[in-house]
Specification:
Pfam families: malic, Malic_M. By secondary structure, the chain is α/β, with parallel strands linked by helices. The chain has 17 helices and 14 strands. The longest helix is centred in the middle third of the chain and has 21 residues.
Amino acid sequence: MRSRPTRLFGRPADVAPPSTRLIDDAGYAGGTVASTADNAPTDRQTKAPFNEPSIDDVPITDEEIFMAHVGGKLSVELRSPIDTQRDLSIAYTPGVAQVSRAIDNQAHLVDKYTWTDRLVAVVSDGTAVLGLGDIGPRASLPVMEGKSALFRTFAGLNSIPIVLDTKDPDEIVETLIRLRPSFGAVNLEDISAPRCFEIERRVIEALDCPVMHDDQHGTAIVVLAALKGAMAQQNRDLRDLKVVISGAGAAGVACANILDHAGVTDVVVLDSKGIVSFHRDDLNEIKQELAERTNPRSLGGGPAEALAGADVFLGVSAGKIDESLIASMADNAIVFALSNPDPEIHPTVAAKHASIVATGRSDFPNQINNVLAFPGVFAGALDAGARRITERMKLAAAEAIFSVAADDIRPDRIVPSPLDQRVAPAVAAAVAAAAHAEGVA
């Protein structure tokens, strides 16, 4: 096992944690406060900053958005200054040659003397960006920069966006194999289905480091955490649920997988042509495999047949669901309408018939946001020196997210706030422990 420096939630112990902005009474950014795990949680840790104006009160303007992106959202910071000739001789030639010789003799020292051990590559081909679709690598770059910024903010991990001007799975995999010495983990992002499944599988097989397609597994982890919260609120058992997933793409397949591993036995998946069932002859390989382990009641038809008497609706597609179909669900129904920016059904409409409603948006209660998962998952995997991210590690991450909110579960708070500073450390610790227990670290 490789020797690794002591870390604090994904950061080496000698690197200060990222700062949290303070907002003064006028709503302006002021000083900084260090993240601390040992202190009791405060409102600042569990909610938005004090006196921060809501988006409803102070709408975000296009000018504000574009100004925040001028020059990009990322920069490279030095851990040690280069102000003198001595600094220059240590950081670069001739001093750096000593470090290169040491790594040449003992390859594992690259983790100690470079940033690769704590560097996540955020990789995309721009084919499935947010709700925008195939907009290409250049247009996807602001999103990938944002992802890297979240890694730094919530887990203290360095991250660089890499957008590739190719849609060829062979070329994407080969590129990452050749770049492997430059990073410690790979976050695949916004790659269209079904290509994303093959690309993730092949990259995992080819590389000896953590790899995860966040659109699949980050979504699935937070969905499972939210369902655990809903079950705690309703005093029900996850294993008794009848779940309908609208969408058989990246997120839908991953959600079906993690629910299966969590013990949910009655899952029905819908695609644009109806219920994914082994009776259909138009399924691709991924959907055929999905049909073999879902739909235990052998339902046929479409949304109406699937949702009648169902306990949970999980929307991860762009399709719309009529109010009458939500009304046909069982008592105490749960609706997760996660499509962004437009949910499958408006949450206020869904709330007429469902006891718990969640969306992917920040302007409604119960935001199911991947940022609750991926920073801590990668931090924990890197802390443990894990060679891959397993189902057991994902289940541990979901349980950790739920545990943060468990003491204050309400119908409008089944998961923690994305800004809750307790989440990433809890997830990282749980994922690292699971990696060690499973023997992948």
